[in-house]
Q: What sequence folds into this?
DNA sequence: AAGTGGTCTAGACCACCAG
DNA sequence: TGGTGGTCTAGACCACTTC
């Protein structure tokens, strides 16, 4: 596995933050402190704290000690790509059930999204997800062929497929692209989510990649209106969000 | 400023990717290549490529050259905060009409969002916006009191209020926070957008700030389903988007 | 077998922050 | 003013990919 020195240090710091050794708002030991304590070079310490910074756990300013910003265990990137991780971090009771698992050949659109050969095999999964006992989301996912075996092994009430395949098959999500819009509930959506047909749903389609840029899955998640809100911060310096025309515009 | 060697290298690579010097799917030069070419150490090159990887532009696997994953440039912050700028960049014909302009006292929620005194005056604007001749968005904006005079001066068919007040009154947007969800069309929405009542709309509420952190406006934009899609990219290195519970969850 | 990225070391200088 | 993080160097060994 990825058992390296800097990951080890990061995990130790993560644990210390989580358990209150370094409380919210407190200052972390300096880089030289940590490198002496762990008997590693300063570069290795910096790799470790960079990992925590990318998880949003600590902040840093030149000249001042690093500060503990949050103590939750979950990363926001993971939370965006994993419904289960997000829900658990919110303190919600989460449940999932796989309703359908089918191996079939990819449609042209799916092959294009997953960057796979046209006509290659993919795994289609239909899944319903609950928050605090209420059905709130229907998930329709197409997994790339190389991921399918790992997903087929999982039990149908598996809470987090992404977590499970990361642990068991070392398939780790690293990058995601998300398309967010509103759609009317179809008859299957309506039945599963217990809403009226054509009632509003918030749709999040996303494509997930490994660090090497290999596509893992292409997903269409539909949330009952009112159950979730997506939140984006941006600035003149960095604009991660953009607006795109839907099919109705420029037809 | 932040003019460092590794940023400089990153920007040069970003440009080369964007302009096709390194096309989609092609391999980047090796680290040793780049360090020779730029006359920097390998560590500096690695800082540069790590930046691009966190933006999702390139992927990497141990042992193999880095690969170009995408070449699009993200749309600017201005385009996200200005419907008019976005539409024009898309090549769409855009039109706008202010239907209502009212000075009134802020509700408690509005005062809270705009970080203003409870009971202070704000300017409420109702506006309808067209793309290529079709009504696609209803905008309900509350402008902070200090911005109101500049907005009241504008003609009712002003295409971009943000652009106009930036030019005339030097009120410039710098940060934004966006909440995106789906709602059912109310009767006013339905009439203006020419859709059925309760049909799905994509809602983008956003709060806009100056560089100094002063709130400019709090807006509720509702798009006809199918007319726009929001697109967000994230990575393990940087996650600007998060999911939030709506009022239905954890009630 | 040669090339490449992942990890790590042991230094260095600078800009910035705190007391 | 001394400590701290940000940047950079010039090496090294290893795991992995590619040919």
A:
């Amino acid at each position: 596995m990825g058992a390296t020195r800097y990951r080890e240090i990061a995990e130790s710091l993560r644990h210390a933050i989580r358990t209150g050794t370094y409380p919210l708002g407190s200052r972390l030991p300096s880089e030289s402190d940590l490198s002496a304590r762990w008997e590693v070079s300063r570069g290795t310490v910096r790799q470790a704290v960079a990992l925590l910074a990318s998880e949003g756990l600590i902040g840093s300013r030149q000249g001042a000690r690093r500060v503990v910003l949050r103590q939750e265990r979950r990363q926001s990137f993971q939370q965006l790509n994993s419904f289960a991780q997000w829900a658990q971090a919110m303190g919600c009771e989460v449940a999932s059930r796989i309703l359908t698992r089918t191996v079939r050949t990819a449609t042209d659109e799916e092959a294009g999204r997953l960057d796979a050969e046209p006509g290659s095999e993919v795994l289609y999964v239909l899944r319903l997800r609950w928050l605090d006992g209420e059905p709130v989301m229907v998930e329709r996912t197409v997994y790339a062929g190389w991921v399918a075996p790992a997903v087929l092994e999982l039990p149908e009430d598996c809470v987090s497929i992404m977590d499970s395949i990361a642990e068991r098959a070392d398939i780790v999500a690293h990058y995601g692209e998300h398309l967010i819009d509103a759609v009317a509930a179809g008859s299957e959506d309506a039945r599963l989510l217990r809403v009226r047909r054509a009632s509003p749903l918030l749709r999040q389609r996303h494509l997930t990649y490994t660090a090497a840029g290999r596509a893992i899955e292409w997903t269409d998640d539909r949330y009952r209106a009112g159950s979730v809100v997506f939140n984006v911060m941006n600035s003149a310096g960095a604009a991660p969000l953009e607006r795109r025309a839907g099919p109705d515009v420029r037809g």
